[in-house]
Fold this sequence. Notes:
740 residues; alpha+beta; Beta-galactosidase, Chain A, domain 5; Glycosyltransferase; 2 domains; 9-stranded antiparallel beta sheet; 35 strands; elongated
Amino acid sequence: xxxxxxxxxxxxxxxxxxxxxxxxxxxxxxxxxxxxxxxxxxxxxxxxxxxxxxxxxxxxxxxxxxxxxxxxxxxxxxxxxxxxxxxxxxxxxxxxxxxxxxxxxxxxxxxxxxxxxxxxxxxxxxxxxxxxxxxxxxxxxxxxxxxxxxxxxxxxxxxxxxxxxxxxxxxxxxxxxxxxxxxxxxxxxxxxxxxxxxxxxxxxxxxxxxxxxxxxxxxxxxxxxxxxxxxxxxxxxxxxxxxxxxxxxxxxxxxxxxxxxxxxxxxxxxxxxxxxxxxxxxxxxxxxxxxxxxxxxxxxxxxxxxxxxxxxxxxxxxxxxxxxxxxxxxxxxxxxxxxxxxxxxxxxxxxxxxxxxxxxxxxxxxxxxxxxxxxxxxxxxxxxxxxxxxxxxxxxxxxxxxxxxxxxxxxxxxxxxxxxxxxxxxxxxxxxxxxxxxxxxxxxxxxxxxxxxxxxxxxxxxxxxxxxxxxxxxxxxxxxxxxxxxxxxxxxxxxxxxxxxxxxxxxxxxxxxxxxxxxxxxxxxxxxxxxxxxxxxxxxxxxxxxxxxxxxxxxxxxxxxxxxxxxxxxxxxxxxxxxxxxxxxxxxxxxxxxxxxxxxxxxxxxxxxxxxxxxxxxxxxxxxxxxxxxxxxxxxxxxxxxxxxxxxxxxxxxxxxxxxxxxxxxxxxxxxxxxxxxxxxxxxxxxxxxxxxxxxxxxxxxxxxxxxxxxxxxxxxxxxxxxxxxxxxxxxxxxxxxxx
Length: 740
């Protein structure tokens, strides 16, 4: 018997297999580690597995194992696996070589996997794959991996994950196993298309990670969804955690194919890429195995993310933050105009690089951010003595104050200058919070300069009265309301998004009703959003499922409550939301095909981008909004990891910008709205929306207004004492000069 030790765990090699144990108990095992998927001439992928026939130990921390797997069609695959302990983990490196090709074997893939001895089904585990799977994925959509527990395969391509990792924690014991790609060394595949059922591509070097519990039958879906199944040569020992190479996606949840609904059944999808079964062809990949034990999901998620982040994080993108801030301000100054009857704003969308305007519609928050851009122009105008910027921003605020409230005091969502009327939007809680916060901030900004705008404050208070009237007895709010305050959407997970506005309105007015409403909403959110991990529904144009922006708004709300009260419970919730939200950022890099030379991603990395909703891959640069918040968390906790992440998102999100003008945008510094790239091909309309610029302006201006610099390095020049003093932002938030 050969033994490798890593921390409290041992890897035992005997009888051709591997066991992972702790204190004499077997936690994970694989009796037949050589596992191959083989595509045959019948276009069916069959499965075969064998035990190791060769084993040797080299020193205390290295084991070499392997053997030859033969298929019924006469192919022979040689496996050469190396297990090596490294920094409290084990790196498993595999090379598979085609020794002989059978006439009817076309392609192959393999997997590194371990049976989870303590789990019979996926619901015995809490799983984590960043931006893909959290706990039981109960707040995901039906087509997302992990939502439907009745699948046999729960695999997702690692390029859809913001870091290539999958961790599974036993709900009963807390024992956790994680597989992750060892290095960020994915290269471009040879075919520019999503895999359709099964595809052979010799150049694909991406893998997939997840769980499986296959029956002893193959599974292939024909083009109209019919599942073809036949007996296979592999043996099932239980539920396994797998790293599959090359990539596979499957199965994903029940969905109707659109060909003949009266005839067709609901079915699942399963896509694979295989390498060619050619004599002497070989592939190589390396996976890291990490083990731990945790009493809750949050610490497991944090451990898993931080472990892989430290190893695979992309380099910082070099960007002049001062230049980029002023790029954005100049862009908003140029675009802001009167669209008639005092309807000041910027376009809703425009195609890059020429800023070809596609839509004019003024939205209160969310992707439109009209009051937010107005406030940013005002803040800049006062700080840098630019009357034009200040006046344009003030016009944008005035339009909403004078016209934006409905008859019940609620802020309308979207105004159409073409129709000179508000569009029939619901009263979205998150969208309302966006606009109200910025109008209140504009009131505070100008009052500190002794300008009185009581109507701006009255607008905010009238809206607050609307929301306090509809607040439920348990402190919650609905995701959206009808204009009269009746419920439009019964989900309450967005409750936290209104909290920062209510806290700051209390600071301005001193009215206890606002403070109490914020605390009640916070208590509901602590028990549901934080403890149940119900971060969902903040993207108003998406279904009520998990997303990154719900984590961001939870951070905003819990930090406001902590700033207000100093209570540790709000700090716990803040850190939980921060650790969750961080996992939504592509922090590693891999190349993508980009045929548009005007796109910054034609030359730059995807790192810093973030998926919008769970399971989608691809994404946008919304995480730019969080640099200020994470820097503040670093100052509160002293944890330098938060500072590192703040700098990473402040810098790498700018990779989507034409900062220096090299991509030929008509207005320098703008960014695309986002797109898909998890299949390593960029899919995008390549257009700009106002939120893109707003989420860069907001944290940059807050860093400057609070700490005196547009970049993290500049903020760090302050003394520790000065940084801590300035980080108490509510000490001066509503400190106004005496009225004459």
